[in-house]
Amino acid sequence: MEVSGVRRMVILKCQLMSSLNLCPGDAKCLVAFMRKEGEFERYRSVPAAIVGIIDCGGCDGTRAVPSLGLLKMHLASLKEDADVVHVGTCITKFCPRKDDIVKAVRERAGVEVVEGTHKYVVERIFGK
Ligand code: SF4
What we know:
Helix content: 25-40%
CATH class: Alpha Beta
Low-confidence stretches: none
Bound molecules: iron/sulfur cluster
Largest sheet: 4 strands, parallel
Strand order of the largest sheet: 2-1-3-4
CATH topology: Rossmann fold
């Protein structure tokens, strides 16, 4: 059944962090989306759904765009599409190739690209 009027978002995450289980369960993005916090605040008054979470394919991030293409095919088989791509905070905050990845995604996604997802980043490891 198709659901109309919903903003469908894709989250692009860091494969390295994901494979090392440094963000178990993608919980920070999912909780931020549930609470409509961080870059998901924009969906407070808009029906929105996450239709896919994919990773960049590993350093140096060049598989991000092909992975989006594969996701597009997969969503199409479900009669779905995406309206916006969120480049995860794991990438925007920590990836040395962040600028290249964001640029490549902006050039090819064909939909809005938002830099960031959650804001639950620990800014200081030690001290108060
Ligand atoms: S290219 Fe960046 S986002 Fe991708 S795995 Fe490496 S550090 Fe993570």
